[in-house]
Amino acid sequence: MPAYPGRFKYLLRQRRQIFVAVLICCIMALYGCEQKKSQVREWRFALEEIQGGVQDAYAQKFKQLIEAKTNGKTHVSIYPYGTLGTSDQITELVNNGAVHFAMASPGHLGKLIPEVQVFLLHFLFSDNDEVDKQVYAHLQDIQAFHSLYAQKGLELLSFYPEGWMVWTTRQNIEHPEDFQGVKFRVMTSPLLLASYAAYGASPISMPYSEVYSGLQLKMIDGQVNPIFAIEEMSFYEVTQHMIFPRHAQFITSAIASKRFFDKLSPDDQKMIRETIAELNGYIYDVQEQYNRERLERIRKRSKIDITTLTPAERQEFRQRYEPVYDTFRQMVGPKGAEILKTIQTMVKTEEAKQSSADAKSTSDAKHASPQFQTPKSQT
Ligand code: 6CS
Questions:
Q1: Taking the CB of residue 242, how many other CB atoms lie within 10 A of it?
Q2: Is the pLDDT of residue 358 over 90?
Q3: 49: Cβ below 6 Å to ligand 1?
Q4: Residue 368: pLDDT band by 50, 70, 90 thresholds?
Q5: 329 burial class (0-12, 13-18, 19+ CB within 10 angstroms)?
Q6: Could you identify the atom of ligand 1 that is nearest to the CA of residue 250?
Q7: Which residues pair with residue 205 across a beta bridge?
Q8: What is the pLDDT of residue 186?
């Protein structure tokens, strides 16, 4: 009998040792996994466009730069449109931190941040691409936007252009009257409804993913988007006319989740901001290239009729659009009106700079090549 308690204790001790050993192994394994996990962190980047679009080019470059700068310690996963939901759903995911980075286009974001609809106004930018390029490069310097985004849990990183907006429709449109009764798809921000209603159209908001079938099923008669999007979403297959009014640029914003961004180290935040700054020039060139190349592809693949509005025709639209500037001011209040003024001033300042640079280069050319001057006797 006395042997039993001793043996029992021995067995118990042995079991306890095994249990402790297993526990230590588990803890070490978990610790090992955690260590591995913390060595490579994942940053999720969601897009409002499909693979191969301008937003994808931006995110791919961001991924490449960030992964290189962190020596592979950061893995950027890109989620193209269709994998996570509509633009509104993506913004929601960024707000709650499930997605770390995303694109948020004013055409949809305007419901949440009305002031950002300033980029939806027609005839806001210059007709001179060089002027606009300078203006686009400084849009994120408008501080008011940063606090407006922050109030919605979003960290504004950058604004950038994706190309001039082009109409594709069933019937040609050359004058505002041609819009009468046209069921025209726009993104979901309210200012867009007011904009096309001003031309006499019957605007309808719908998510990007429903536009092709909407056109095919004749629920809508037309839509508006940059050329690269018209090509990659095949909208040119289900519309007969492509009209170039040069009335608005597609501007989007690159954003981060504020709750994610605020927790990053100052070094990481600096690295992200520097990377975003490096992307400015890159993405401008990409959108130019994509829009140019894809127009050629559309021309080759379809018989779509292409119309470029004349200056006089554009003037008709511009005049018809004027009251929408007041609609915008009423919709957004004083902060939005102030932002509008700032952008208009930026455009005017750049236009003045550009025309004095043009004048200088003309006069330099005259002095540099006297052989091209008209001989006095002929004047
Ligand atoms: O029309 C739209 O809804 C979409 N268009 C583009 C070019 N990008 C994203 C946006 O959601």
A1: 23
A2: no
A3: yes
A4: low
A5: middle
A6: 7
A7: 186
A8: 98
